[in-house]
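Running this now, will post back.
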Amino acid sequence: MRRPHRPAPWPFIAAFVIAASACGEPPRKEMDQAQGAIDAARAAGAEQYAAQEYRQAVLELERSYAAAAERDYRQALSQALAASESAQEAARAAADRKAVARGEAERALHRAEMQLAATRQRLEAARAARVPASRVTRHKAVVDGAEPTLARARHDIAQDRFKAVVAALDALGDRLARTQSEIDAAIAARSARRPARRGTR
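Update: finished.
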């Protein structure tokens, strides 16, 4: 009785392909595919957000070319396939880490916007308390200079430049926090002097 045909197991097929390539030509198709995967990973930001995985993919492709130059086409194919896999992993890691970085940058932008709004309210309170303009001028300069920083941050976020954004906004937040404290101190000092002036009349 004739036995039913069974498909060859994948490990056997893979071994056959690799063995055949050892006696044939360089695995140009796989090397080109690896280069394409590396290019796609770089476009996804892997150089910045998945540097280790990206460098591994580049190194494996370089090894593939070196093996092909030595006519070790089996090793060339193995390294080309590894380079494609590493590049794809780099692209996935870059996408995940970029999303995290974007979230951090957007949260830093929101915090800075809230701090700027609070500082403006403090300035209005200082004016209402009749704090001398000479004491308020430099605080107003900090507030006026904050909006261009926020505008640059919004632009950088749109351009996927997240790390610089977080650093710049954290620095701005520190300046605004100090400004708020100084304004509050000026308001308190002004309020403390008022009763003494009325009592001397």
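Confidence is low (pLDDT under 50) at residues 1-23, 196-201. More later if anyone needs it.
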